[in-house]
Amino acid sequence: MVQKSTPAKPAPDSTRRSEKSRRAIYGAALALVGEVGYQKTTIEGIAARAGVGKQTIYRWWASKGDVLMEAFVDLSEQAAEAAQPGRQYAIPDTGDLAADLKAVLRATVDELLDPAFEVPSRALAAEGVVNEEIGRRFVARLLEPSLQLYVQRLRAAQGAGEVRPGVDPRIALELFVSPLAQRWLQRTGPISYEYTDTLVDYALNGIAAPGDGKSRIG
Amino acid sequence: MVQKSTPAKPAPDSTRRSEKSRRAIYGAALALVGEVGYQKTTIEGIAARAGVGKQTIYRWWASKGDVLMEAFVDLSEQAAEAAQPGRQYAIPDTGDLAADLKAVLRATVDELLDPAFEVPSRALAAEGVVNEEIGRRFVARLLEPSLQLYVQRLRAAQGAGEVRPGVDPRIALELFVSPLAQRWLQRTGPISYEYTDTLVDYALNGIAAPGDGKSRIG
Asked: Is the Cβ of B38 closer than 8 Å to some Cβ of chain A?
């Protein structure tokens, strides 16, 4: 796992100790949920594996769901930082929407195929499918914020005249994001750069033959 | 649950008894997996709930995975038969691709929102996310055959000049099927007829502004 860059000013010893415990707890939580699943992961198990007392965990988090959610947010931030150090949390805007979407989806392909990400993510996603409360928190805390980056990029493209004004960006993004998500989650097909490039081309240009304007909309 | 139409010629008593047991076993398997999840569902539990001996189940199926998979195939067939009695297993071809896709997706919306379907389907889908063998069987036996119906319909539309010749139908169908699947599985947004109609319009016509042909492909 990539280390976060340390602050320029040295932190006091107690802060550094806390940071070290927090990292150990996140690592233990992600490893455990990947190995035994969400149901069988416990605060006790996380504490034992991280080498901290149970009370250390309860001081910072109310439940195992909270620890795990924070551990995933941290994992995603680490992955993003490793892919593009110091990057802004936005989809690049080079003025070429297709190229920008393809670049971000290729980075997502790399992330989905990374075992450090895949194993715990599958465990949390599976729990979210059957456990509505966990599912909704997973979406609100992790999935929706990243989807909103596509909304912003598509809105900018509408402003630049690249996307039709009548299109709802929140639905439009699903044309390329959801196929990749389903192939990964349900293993309905292979995942590659060529595949995500194709999704972007189809979503932007449509699959209908040119001039077949039967259901052309505003 | 809808009864299958009985054969015109009366079946012998032993066949009718077998059919009754088979239905009871399917019903018990689906109810149990919805209540306690895939992991905790056992052949013993299914047998007890169905009021049959364990050996009756083992005579017909090798494992709980086999029973459940068959129970789901049967559930899907019952749902399809209830929606359109005597229908062919094909997507209608009225010559209007958009209308045909919208009609099928509206029927899928109804199925996904039916609790009799939703609860056991979520349990099996969740297991498939973390259990690769179950996931792959679920796709091969249930998901991919229904996706192939879209492939056939899109191929016919290519033949009729409605869809661009260079488009890969197996990828193209994901532009409208996968968003619905993800909203259902991960609860990333509401599901409605208006939503699936919009997906079809976007997928056919694209979201790019007309004349923005930067990445127009063959």
From this structure: no
